[in-house]
Amino acid sequence: xxxxxxxxxFATILIAAALAVIISKNPVHAALFLVLSFxxxxxIWLLIExxxxxxxxxxxxxxxxxxxxxxxxxMLDIKVEEHRRGFTRYAWLGWITAVAVxxxxxxxxxxxxxxxxxxxxxxxxxxxxxxxxxxxxxLYTHYAYPFExxxxxxxxxxxxxxxxxxxxRRGLKRQDINRQVNVQSTDRVRLVKSMDAKSP
Length: 200
Hints:
Elements: H1 2-23, H2 27-47, H3 51-76, H4 80-84, H5 91-109, H6 131-139, H7 144-165, H8 177-181, H9 185-188
Helix pairs in contact: 1-2, 2-3
């Protein structure tokens, strides 16, 4: 009974936070609401005894990715008004995505019609069961190659991001460390002798 109450409480908070991410006008507020969504999702995963996934979600996404998002959003100083002008052009794609999500949710709720009994919960695991050990044994045996492929894709994405950042762009001011270190005082300061003002 308590698990069901906590699930509905966390689900309500999650839906409200997800809606706030979409409708928030400030990018920093949207990122903070996304952090709340991740934490609430982790709490729901704890209710279904997926402790490892919940911890990874908090440590990786909330602790690393979202902090990076916040730094990028605050450092870029994005002009929100300029980007919102063409927002209505992609409304059709948003409606298609919303309809697809609604169809999936309705399909899950009405899954009992497809021969799936959703009234019975999962069987309790023994006290010696380790969710992390079971996930690791499956991930590094049956799905070892897809896991390595995902790591390679992430590596390519990191290299591409660095290449896009360091590419030569017109009008971009770069910092020359060697020139700054080797600078002399005569290059920066020039002493000028002024003429004495003539008395009237």
